[in-house]
Every structure is written in C-alpha cells, then in structure tokens.
Amino acid sequence: xxxxxxxxxxxxxxxxxxxxxxxxxxxxxxxxxxxxxxxxxxxxxxxxxxxxxxxxxxxxxxxxxxxxxxxxxxxxxxxxxxxxxxxxxxxxxxxxxxxxxxxxxxxxxxxxxxxxxxxxxxxxxxxxxxxxxxxxxxxxxxxxxxxxxxxxxxxxxxxxxx
Length: 162
Prior knowledge:
Number of strands: 2
Largest sheet: 2 strands, antiparallel
Order of helices and strands: EEHHHHH
Distance between the termini: 33 Å
Helix content: 55-70%
Number of helices: 5
Mean pLDDT: 94
Structural class: mainly alpha
C-alpha cells in the first residue's frame, strides 16, 4: 500500500478507506428488500410499476455508464478502494460529485418499483446513511488530504449529490 503525505505533512494511505464497495452495498440492501417482501409484501400499488421501474433503472444504468466512461477517460480509478489519480470534473461530474452513487440509487429505486414493495423505501434510509457516512464522507476527507485546494474548489462549485 502506498503512503502519501498530505499538504500538512501528515502521512496517510492513498485510498479512501470506504466501508464497502458501493455496488455490493446496494445489492445487499436489495436482497434484504426481496427477503422482506417474501415475508410481508407491502405493495406500493395493486397494479404494476414495471414501466416506472424500467425507466428509473435505465436512467440509473445510463448515468452509471456515462460516469464510469468519464472517469476512465480522465485516467483515474473507478473503484473507491484504489487511489484517485485526478479530480474528475467533466461529464456528469459537472452536476454532482457523486453521479455513480446517484446512478446506483436510481437503479435501486427502479428495482424497488419493479418489485412493487415499500420495503425498498424502508431499507433505502439506512443504506443511504451507510453510503453517506461510510463511503462519501470518507472519500471527501481523502480527496481533500490528497488534492487540497483543487478539491475544495471543486466542492464549492459542484453539489455533493443532486
């Protein structure tokens, strides 16, 4: 593991130390939703939300593909367990500092709509808390240590989520 020296001279490991890989956190949460739905369906509507779910999922997948391609084109690592090599400010990163996590949330909501269960909304609350405190804030602290004023200026210009 590479050690970096922050602008203040403090040494740190060159990675954000997130609590888990975000796609796996979302998948695990959705598995909980499906299991809870088996025990107690808690339907959102009596009919189907398939179309709504497909639209949300498609938007989420499209945003994820756009964000990933933008990161790769900028020459940085996509996985939050690897070092950031640059601050990406193009593509969807012009509008959100975390478009890939917004994309995962849209995909999750799409799957929830397709499953037609309120369990998705119930499980989403703790999931988003884990994402915010265990992933996003840790990444932000890491990026501030590594990139200093460059990242702080980006934070001033672009919203965290939407």
